[in-house]
Amino acid sequence: MPPKLLISIGRQGAKVQNGTNDQGAPDAANFDLANAEDASAQIARLRSIVAAANIAYHQNDAPDLSDAEYDALKRRLIALEARYPELASAASPTAQVGAAPNDGFGKITHAVAMLSLENAFAAEDVTDFEARIRSFLSFGGDLAFTAEPKIDGLSLSLRYENRRLVSAATRGDGAVGENVTANVAHIADIPQILPAQAPDLVELRGEVYMSHADFAALNARQAQAGEKTFANPRNAAAGSLRQLDASITAARPLRFFAYAWGALSAPLAGTQSGAIEKLAEFGFVTNALTKICHSPDDLLAHYAQIEMQRADLGYDIDGVVYKVNDLSLQARLGFRATTPRWAIAHKFPAELAWTHLLAIDIQVGRTGALSPVARLAPVTVGGVVVSNATLHNEDYIAGRSSRGEPIRDGRDLRVGDWVQVYRAGDVIPKINDVDLPRRPADAMPYQFPETCPECGSPAHREAGDSVRRCTGGLICPAQAVERLKHFVARGAFDIEGLGAKQIEMFFHDPLLSIKTPADIFTLAQRDAASPLQKLKNREGFGETSTAKLFAAIDARRAIGLDRLIFALGIRHAGEVAGSLLAYHYGTWPALMTALDAIPADPELRAGNAEWAELTAIDGVGAVLANSLLDTFQNPTERAAIDALIVHLHIQPPPARQTDGSPVAGKTVVFTGTLEKLSRAEAKAQAERLGAKVAGSVSAKTDILVAGPGAGSKLKDAEKHGVQVLDEDAWIALIAPKTTLP
Ligand code: IVH
């Protein structure tokens, strides 16, 4: 029997029935002639898979297969066609020009990570942004910003060494992108050579996009040639750049705006605007609508100006980006986990459309949250077909905010209603409004379930929480399976061959079941011990894919502490928290010892030293700390975690780039009033230099930085013989490091 599973092709959910592997993607190993159907049927199936993958890659820019999987399938098809020449066909994807055999894109590690931007939607988000910066910097003087269009394309990093373009990479996951060097060779806006005054190393960032006119002409050509057209210029640009066959990219009219940089061997200028001028001198195209502004009002006025010109620009923009102009202030402000503190993207209002609310479904998430989802009659909103939207929570459906105030003037949402859908950028579509005159007479108010639709456990709402949660914990199959999916996801254990689809399959498998993370690491052993029903004999698996899966699982027994914490799927403990906790505690036993020393009764935590240490970690706080303790002090949860840990070799987090830092590894406490630095900046700076910032003084403290008004901490420092510095002495101590970019 050939394997029979589904793979979905493209964004709109067109489905093709095909052989698939454990990732839901076709697997060349499944097409073994020895145990499969006849060559003609196999060739036909492979052709349809490869053709569908080509569409996903070349036209939708939504590849469903990894490059390696695609290559393996295509090689298999070529081999079969060579063996059975009588079955050759001009319609085969192997016979088509432009789909040349390839090894997929290579990977490029960005010298400086490509980050994203925080979003602002309302005017007050912009005033808050400015106020936060002033407070972080303790800065009352003239604070200038650049304001420039946010181009709706895809970001690209160009590396110039000795003024020659040596590589080009997409953003990828921010750390590693795809090598598209060959593809950018024909983009006229991208210089191959920089002039003599450019630094030896320039890592240049900007946006690849397609103009409206070029997009329309390309779609007309595609339609005439019987090829699929693109939904919008962004898709067209992404699909055109990410072509495995660079000659296709060459024929596509791509453009490029330069707006930022990564690594540089020498600074370009002292200001953002000066640096952008330099980039223009180097031959890059920079955006003419970039303006220097001196206040939130100035920024908002320029935003309004750009919004008015939006329709006439000839290319898509989706907002305005504000950046602190002074680069030394940018350096002081630094970065959060994934976004700079010195920039924000002020997005344009979302796109709207009316459609029919067909049903309301409840999804149960990893943390037990019952999330209502609107099933909609498909409608195009801003170039994308939308058929699902979030309904947030029960209050939102009922027409009130979580504080009990009316939203939509109190109008509730009912199945059968006409609703207004909106989406902004890539965020999940939402329901904005309801058309009451069009409500069917028999439409009933929606009853939000009070028990979990998956496990029947009571679903509770805690005071102050807008979300109703299933109380079933690990006994709820939906929570258990969602936690497992999170456990194997990217950023967590990221096990190749074990994705969401395989987790669903194993979760329900009676013989090789995976119910908790520990079961993943006993899978190979249980498979070996099982006389029947071995994995390699199952549909969708073979000898090779099984061996590969077990090897991939083994490879993840060594795991970073930060990833492990994140992978546990604890509420509020995301990647940033994983990293903060890993850096603070260093090892798993240290983290466990600290958590175990905190009383289970929240009333008794206040005076506990470990609790004080945990909640003093910048970015942790009481909400996350309580959530960690809820998990680690719950016997069922703890047993599942302990059962997992025995299978792992937990690695400490990688050393921070703090070579030569005078405070690396030291524990620092700040107290009293700081006059030159805000508390937030002082903390961020100390942590950047490898210090641990604590909230209270103990024998473990190395330095107390005491400003005027310091009280009991100063006394504690004297008691423990801790070095005490005033603010100036602290600044002098760390000075050599803070001037580094
Ligand atoms: S600055 C540290 N400037 O927006 C981040 N980004 O939502 C530096 N984008 O990934 C980015 N126009 O792809 C910047 N004028 C502009 C931009 C811009 C578009 C994109 C960029 C970024 C994304 C973040």
Q: The biggest beta sheet, please? A: 5 strands, mixed
Number of structurally distinct domains? 5
Under the CATH scheme, which architecture of the largest domain would be assigned? 2-Layer Sandwich
Q: Radius of gyration, rounded? A: 28 Å
What's the CATH H-level superfamily name of the largest domain?
DNA ligase/mRNA capping enzyme
The distinct ligands, each listed once, are: 2-(butylsulfanyl)adenosine
Q: Would you identify the regions where 5 or more consecutive residues have pLDDT less than 50?
A: 1-36, 97-103, 737-741
How many DSSP helices?
A: 25
Shape: globular
CATH fold naming of the largest domain: D-amino Acid Aminotransferase, Chain A, domain 1
Tell me how many strands there are: 26
What's the N-to-C terminus distance? 61 Å
The neighbouring-strand order within the major sheet is 4-13-12-5-11
In short:
By secondary structure, the chain is of the alpha+beta class. The protein is built from 25 helices and 26 strands.
Question: Care to describe what's here?
Answer:
The protein is α+β, with helices and mostly antiparallel strands and 741 residues long. Strand 14 (351-364) and strand 15 (370-381) form a beta hairpin. The structure holds 2-(butylsulfanyl)adenosine (IVH). Residues 115-117, 148, 150-151, 155, 207, 259-260, 321, 340, 343, 345 line the site of 2-(butylsulfanyl)adenosine.
